[in-house]
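Hi U.,

Before I forget, here's the chain from the pilot set. I'm dumping it here mostly so it's searchable later in email.
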Amino acid sequence: MKFGESYARAISNHPEWPVTTIVAYGKLKTMIKFLGELTSTQQVREAERRFVPPSLSFDPTGGAIDEKVPVTSPMLLGQHNTTPTTEGSGDVEAPLASSSSSTAAAEHEPIFVEITENDFFDEIDRSIAKLGAYTNARLEELNRDLMQLTTNVEHGWDTEEERVSFEEMAKAIGERFLSLESFINIQYTALYKILKKHDKYLPATPIYQFYRKRMYQQHWVQGDYSRMFVKLSAIHSTLRGDKAGVQDKGASQGFVRSTKKYWVKAEDVSSVKLALSQHLPVFQMKLDELRGDSQLTNSVYLDNQSLELYHGRLEKYPGAIAMRYRWYGDKEPEVVFVERKTHKESWKGELSVKERFTLMPEQVVPFSEGTYTVDMAVDDLLKRKPRTSAAELDDFRRLFTECQDQVVGKQLEPMMRTQYMRVAYQIPFDASVRVSLDTNLLMMKENPDCAPSCEEAGRWFRDPSLLVKRTEVTYFPHAVLEVKLSLAEGEECPRWVEDLVERSGYLTLVHKMSKFIHGCAVLLPDMVQSMPYWIDDLSLRPSILHSQPDRALTPRGGHVPRSGPSRGSSVDNASVVDDDHQQRPMLSGPRAILLPPTTNLAGVPYTDSTKFCAEEMASLLNTAGGLNPPPRPPRRGIWDRTMHALGLRKPTSRTVQPYMLPRKIPMRIEPKTFLANERTFLNWLNMAVHLGAIGTALVGFSIGLSTTEANQSLARPVQLVAVFVMPVSVVICLYASWVFFHRADRIRKREGSFDDRIGPPVLALIVVIALWGTFIAAVAQVASGG
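Structure:
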């Protein structure tokens, strides 16, 4: 669908948007086309070189500014074309479509009496001014209504009807805010498209970069209005009567819970926030100090040179751990959380555990080197918290010792940084239901390519003064939502959680997704031995291409898509944004930036999403010589395909590209998986016994037929069928044994694709032949009168 059509549809779906504030997309596009036609006929080429629009502070043509040069003569559209052409039927011309009579007249009369490029720039300036004025007015109105509602709720309510009325008012304010955000996003996109068209049709006066920077500085793009969700969540919490739990102030903390992760398209982030705010309050330890609802979170993940922790978490080995140092805020860390996540098998009745304790920043390096002992840590803890109980001290000693032994014994060092803006939804200190939403997510190498590593520099995190190269950082295009449940035995998941996850259409489940694993797979391709399964998703392709070296092959279209940098990072060339993945304003996000829109997460499960060629992604991530497109694999004959399907021929360089790393799908290995394999094996043996019985029966039929001289000619075909079926039953026993051991080996290795495409069809064919042979023998015997 062309943008003009989607633009018209969006406006028709929102009658509350005033026509006078809408960008005249169709009008501006028509102006560009006529100006482009005049330019192509060379009638105004020299005049354009002298023209300087008053809205610019520099000459976009690169020439000298001279205010005495007269502006070119007006361009009469009626002399060239009296009927404007449009790309799509949905182009909106708001100022000209106020009445049906004006629309009818536009078909026979020129839309503009006379225009110059100056008129085009004036129209752009008016559009930007109208958007700013309208947005300011609507935001002031929303803030005023929200303050009034907050005051009314604080005064309390007398009846249930009044409480429900307050709740409906809060929902209405949230819906109005979402409508305003949609309005700003679609109008910004319309201006961006128009500026892009201008530079395409009128390359002599490029203005896209100037106006893009100018719009980026507007308050409706730079402002962070997510504080409104904090106030709405507080109102809903008061109306529900939420009661806070008891804060755990122990020296070490443990969290036992089940976690599921979802991807959220950037344009749906505000809708998800509004839905969450109606059921859980925003929970931050220092919420009053934040500008919005989110807090900058940094996590430094540890691993060794063989990426032992990466592969353990990817394979989901029992007891696999992840170690990280985490701190909050956009300033230098004041307190560092040492966290360890341990994977456990749920079929054993165990849940994964996250444990953590705190250190001072200056204690992290001695802790990693083993010079900061547990006794020293306990003494420092008692100085800070003299009332720490003996049980808490024992837990602290155990966790500190285990973590330090793992860091020193496995030679763990800082390897990967994840940085994002996190907003948490939770009833204070009640961990039964906790939801976190991470936006503006990026992963970064903790050890720079051309500088000393953290271990060599004696640091536990990357030197912030070093420039972050484009190949050392990858921007994740989606927000990540985590639903963490810690319910008592027999307690059911709240209904609203199921509605949000399964019925809202905003979330896409990505089983066992990990930011650490994704960062290592994209930025450390030479060190990993396998890739996570989600790496092949089409929506991740621009961000992965952006992180590749310059010598890499650019994607289709001839340019590399790029995303803008997140706050707190400095990336070279990060200001260059791809045209097809332009950032758009978001009123509710940090710095009001939307990440690039995606293409295949429209409410469908991940497994049904569109993927691009796996070999192409493998060439992006597994070759050191650049992003060369993979060669077309040679065509295989029927015999080769059959042997590969049976698993009787190992992959060779002719059938599988040597740079192709395996994709790992998280699998739950339980005893019932092996028992299911055994049941399948016994079922195959059962079928083999049945075939043997059929063969024996056919032999009996053939002996009965051969007793009479008249039926001896019929006995021979029956004997042939029996001779065919009985050996096949033996072959099936051998084939079932091979399949049983083959699948057991794949289960132990946690490799997928257990389906058998050859055995069942062959078995069905043999059964059909045997049954037909039995039927023919029986008919022949009856016909012979025997």
